[in-house]
Design goal:
elongated; 2 strands; 4% strand; 128 residues; mainly alpha
Length: 128
Amino acid sequence: MLLRGLVRHCPRCGGGHLFANWLTMIPTCPRCGLRFEREEGFFLGAIVVNAAVVLVAMAATIGLGVVLTLPNPDPVKLSVLTVAVAIGVPIFFYPFSRTVWSAFDLWMHPLEPEEIESAASLSSTRAP
């Protein structure tokens, strides 16, 4: 499931095309009917995943920047590069964080029988 999430696919069925654009995820999987926002505030976990990735990227940027420029690291250049990473990484990783969080949540909290029925009815209404 996690690997499916890492490539922006549905954690349940592996179906793709889950985003209307880079920042807008559709509410249900077009293939299996899985509703992604399973409860109010569901995607707060995705924000935590995104924040963790940003923190790791910033730490790696600073660490590599210092190591590669020893013995005289330039703090201004390192700061500018780290700010660029802090702005760019969350925008780039945002859709991945949503599908990764969906996969992680599905693993921790499997679908209830009524969610399975609801998804099945949604996917059957979409069939040609």
